[in-house]
Every structure is written in C-alpha cells, then in structure tokens.
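tool_call: predict_structure(chain=1)
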Amino acid sequence: MENNKKSIVFIGSRVNVINELLKEVKIDNLTIFALENSILVDYLNDKNILYHVFSLNEKKKYLDILLSINFDILISNGCPIIFPIEKFKPHQILLNIHPTYLPHLQGKTPMNGVFYLEYKFYGATIHYIDKGIDTGSIIYQEKVELTQDIDLGLLYYLSMKLEGTVFKKGWKKLKLKEFKNVGSKQNGKPTYFNRTNEMQKINFKESTDVILLKIKSFGIKSQGCFASIGKTTYKFFDAERIIHVPLLKYYANAKYGEVILSYDEKILIKTIDGIIKIKRYEICN
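tool_result:
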C-alpha cells in the first residue's frame, strides 16, 4: 500500500514526532489520540487539528478502541500504556519513539535515569513495539555526548527534539523498504529506570556527591527533591558544592542537615562531608 494511503494512528503526549509525521502523511489518513493535559493537546488546538483525548484512568477503554480500529500503523510517543501486541491484527505495525539510546534506560521516566545512573550520553530511538517494555527491534537511533552544562530541563528539550529527528530518519528507512521489517535486535546490556518518591527524598546522612546527584536528577519545577529541616519542608531544584576553603572552615563544626546561611534567595546547608549551596528551591509548608 502506498505511504499516503496508509491508515495511521498516533497516540501520545509529545509534539516533535507528530510535527514530522504531519509532513509525511495526509491528515485524512491520521487518527490522533492525545493524552489529557499534555503539551500535545495545546499543539493540536493551536493548529486546529482534530483529535481524541485519552486518559490514563481509562486505559482499558482506549485499548479496546485501538483494537477495534482497522489501522495499518500505530505510532506511540509519550504514551505510558503497555500494548497487548498479540491482540492486534497480524498486518498492523506498532512503533514507539523512546527518548533514550536503547537498550539503555528503558521504562516510563528514563530522563531522570540519565543523571541518576550517571550516563555520559543521551539519545532517542524508533523501534517496533513487542511484548516487553521498550525492548523491540530498533529501526533507527542516535546518541549524543552529554556535557556538564546540560540540566534536566535542557535534557528533556534536547531528547524530545532528537525524537523528531530520529523519527524522520526512521520513517524514511521504513518507506524505502515499503514498511517491511527493517529492525535489528537491541544490542548491549539493558537498563531500566522509573523514578520513585523515595529517590526524590534528601537524606543528609548521605554524602554531598549523592545529594547533588539526586538534585540534578530531578531538577525541574514539576519534580524536585524534598528535604525536611526542622519544621520546614523544602523542595530543591538546583544546587552546587561549596569549595571556598575559608567558608568551609567557618562552618566546619556546624551540625549536618542544618541551614547555616540564607542570602539572596539562596541557602547554604551543612552536609556530612561539606556544604551545598541551594540555588533554586521552594518552601512547601
């Protein structure tokens, strides 16, 4: 079947992939399911494109709808639903675009894992959906070296942009082979990452390195790391180590886990082996 006549379903929450998809297919052949309250909803409203909203509270309902549609290709991007691949029709192709260099960091919240597991690179992958979670054969992927200036917010932005690039090149590869199987088995030892509330808690009995790693791993407004100091609960987004020797000497005998200085909307906190400067935070109570 010609590419522009294929019936395609897009389901997800992100925009860079569908932005590339809309350059490749006719809108009449495309059915879109957008996750409620996602940036995809805003994107589609802005472009006056028709879509269906889906909710994670009604996963079974929307899976049943997908199973009833006679589509040729399903494209998932930012859709946290596990597809029962065996229930779809044999001719149907299911694709996913994942914001890491698979098999590294499979799972629902892999971006946090880039920092939490101390990766030196980020990436994106277009792959076939199989019975596992982000385990299907790879169609195309790219990897980019991670530099020290990239924080979590920039990492999200760059990875999502790369998803669009990877999809564009993967789609071209699929078209050249007339959408026959072009995948190759994932190569290397897989890792899996889903963030938990426990990961986001700061324990001042941990080393400065561990505390800074946690804060960097969850350092955006919607996430953050939580710490209780006295009767106050803080939410930290950005921090760095104090290395100035006189300052370290001034507070060498301070009790760890205490705010030792507050200035210019920043605070210094004594750790078990040093001092950290909290550069961006909220007070939660």
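agent: Residues 1 and 178 are 8 Å apart (CA to CA). Proceeding to next step.
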